[in-house]
Prior knowledge:
The protein is of the alpha+beta class and 93 residues long. The chain is built from 2 helices and 7 strands. It has one domain: SH3 type barrels, CATH 2.30.30. The chain has a 7-stranded mixed β-sheet, with helices on one face. Strand 3 and strand 4 form a beta hairpin.
Amino acid sequence: MLENEEEVIATEALPVNPDIQxxxxxxxxxxxxxxxxxxxxxxxxxxxSGTIEKVEEETxxxxxxxxxxxxxxxxxxxxxxxxWRGKPFDETK
Length: 93
């Protein structure tokens, strides 16, 4: 993949968990993107580690950790949990 090339994971739309959506919107604020990193996004079959690049409707663009800085799009409905420092992120604390 070329630098800054975007990979889109296309699947049928899944219902979005409102708790996950709230966490992602909270964490997408520019200050919080810097303060809470890296995040781990738990999906059904894998865990992605990186930062939120942007949020568009029900799609989250994640800048993956690593030398490539690969940015991928993930449907919010596929995200089962968001972890920070190995624990579920709680925006109320």
